[in-house]
Design brief:
Length: about 525
């Protein structure tokens, strides 16, 4: 996921640098061309033919052939024009060309210009070109009184590899804000952006996304409904149903923030991290990701869900952290503290847990408890190996203890220093006890009252289990086994030292993983 975030924000940096400032530049040149403090008369420089026309509105000069005007420091060319001297206005027709120095050229079929109000309207096949940018539209207006220039009939801006189209385009000189609205599309060879509204603050160089926004590239797709990107500092944030989707991963949240300079990102509220390859989903209230070491941390009702052969493993802890093995390209999950998990065929809890996606191995630390069928398995440390989504093998190290209930007063027990457990279809069928082996188990026929209890000790044992009941025991070293009538054994002798039945803590449904005590 950090790779995903890094790629996303690199592309956004390129997008933001499509040089909105270029658009600002040609607009500011237009401002200089038509905006001075005191109105000046429009000056006629040349025409092949001059005609006078007396109208109610005053004297009008009709100009034909190679017509040239000057107003302030802008030159204007056309094939023909009407110059209204008394109102200081003009209409220019055919091959209209406005030139500002060596940087700005504006073309169109018709120009209506008021020298007093400084409002210029160019219509018909409008093309504006400066050194690096080209704008085409049907109508371009600049109003110096309001400080707004705009097109409202659709426009296209091309700059190097970037092409931006929109229905409306505005520049607000007072706010120093560029504003593109409705059907905004930015096309680059590496990505395409579709949004409702795009704004750019020229003083801060911050771009704002408003309304549904989709950014599509070969690597991923980004969606948000509100957001911003600081092009100067390489900092971005997407809000409102923010979602980043790649071929293998997605991240969603109410807001997603990223600082590219330090490679740090965070997501806030309703976080969902989804790995489609590993079929893993992590939810939480707050998440952080670090590009340098490919690390992700999620807290706040953090919950991992993984599909395992049609079943689902649910894991909760105060904090869930994932890291990437760059060699195997597989992730490792660290869950701490108060880790608790639920799956239909086994459940467990411990203070800290490590889960390797590479080999489906679960390591449980500090007072781990594992429940399988009617068995409770405890030790100082427990290692569980999965295979095909099911329990396959287990290693219990130091103070290993297995308990299963016959009834509320009688419990089958296996105890030893270390144990290895073996499973078939997620059911425990064999236990190897290594060191200080002890057992208490009840021998009886089905549906008959308990009558006898077996107590056995041996340094090492091999025990076969069927339906959580001891089927047979092989004593490997120094055996000592006795069958007692149950009525002759004191109640306190029916439990091995350190016996602790914790069935009340066992999660019975998904919601129970959030309950610790």
């Amino acid at each position: 996921m950090p790779n995903l975030a890094h790629q996303l924000f690199v592309r956004l940096a390129n997008f933001a640098r499509m040089r909105f400032v270029g658009f600002l530049f040609f607009v500011s040149l237009a401002v200089n061309a038509f905006a001075q403090d005191a109105p000046r008369k429009i000056e006629l420089l040349h025409a092949n033919e001059l005609q006078y026309d007396e109208r109610q509105t005053g004297k009008v000069r009709r100009l034909l052939g190679d017509v040239q005007f000057k107003h302030d420091d802008a030159l204007m060319f056309c094939d023909s024009a009407w110059l209204y001297s008394e109102t200081n206005t003009m209409d220019a027709f055919s091959h209209v060309h406005i030139k500002q120095g060596d940087t700005l050229d504006l073309y169109g079929d018709k120009l209506n210009y008021n020298g007093n109000t400084k409002v210029a309207v160019v219509t018909g096949n409008v093309v504006l070109i400066d050194k690096e940018i080209k704008l085409t539209t049907d109508r371009l207006t600049y109003d110096h009184a309001s400080g707004i220039s705009n097109y409202t009939t659709g426009g296209k801006i091309v700059q190097k590899e970037d092409t931006l189209t929109s229905i409306f385009g505005y520049y607000y000189s007072g706010e120093k804000m560029l504003h593109f609205r409705k059907n905004v599309v930015l096309v680059n060879p590496k990505y395409t952006i579709n949004c409702d509204t795009l704004k750019f603050k020229t003083t801060t160089e911050v771009a704002y996304f408003l309304g549904p926004t989709v950014i599509v590239s070969d690597e991923n797709t980004i969606y948000c409904e509100n957001g911003w990107y600081d092009t100067r500092n390489d900092v971005s944030q997407f809000n409102q149903h923010a979602k980043i989707t790649s071929k293998e991963q997605t991240i969603t949240g109410d807001s997603i923030y990223y600082d590219r300079a330090i490679g740090f990102g965070k997501a806030i509220n309703n976080i969902i991290l989804r790995d489609t390859v590993q079929e893993v989903v992590i939810n939480g209230d707050y998440g952080e990701f670090f590009r340098s070491d490919e690390k992700t941390i999620v807290t706040g009702k953090a919950l991992m869900k993984q599909n395992l052969s049609g079943d689902t493993l649910y894991l909760h802890a105060d904090t869930l952290k994932t890291t990437l093995d760059t060699i195997s390209e597989k992730r490792t999950l660290f869950a701490y503290h108060k880790a608790k998990f639920f799956k239909s065929d086994f459940q467990g809890m411990c203070d800290s847990l490590v889960y390797s996606y590479k080999d489906s191995a679960i390591s449980m630390y500090y007072l781990p408890i594992l429940w399988n069928d009617s068995n409770q398995l405890t030790a100082d440390t427990t290692f569980l190996q999965m295979a095909n989504g099911k329990m396959h093998e287990m290693r219990m190290r130091n103070n290993a203890f297995i308990i299963s209930s016959e009834d509320t007063a009688h419990y089958n027990q296996i105890k030893g220093k270390n144990m290895n457990g073996f499973f078939e279809n997620s059911k425990l069928y064999k236990v190897r006890v290594i060191g200080n082996g002890q057992t208490i188990y009840y021998a009886h026929e089905d549906d008959k009252p308990l009558e006898n209890v077996n107590k056995a000790e041996s340094s090492d044992m091999l025990i076969f289990v069927d339906s959580s009941k001891v089927k047979s025991i092989t004593f490997i070293t120094k055996p000592d086994a006795t069958l007692y009538p149950l009525k002759e054994v004191a109640k306190e002798e029916l439990k091995l030292k350190d016996f602790s039945w914790k069935n009340i803590l066992r999660p019975r449904r998904i919601e129970d993983v959030f309950k610790w005590e």
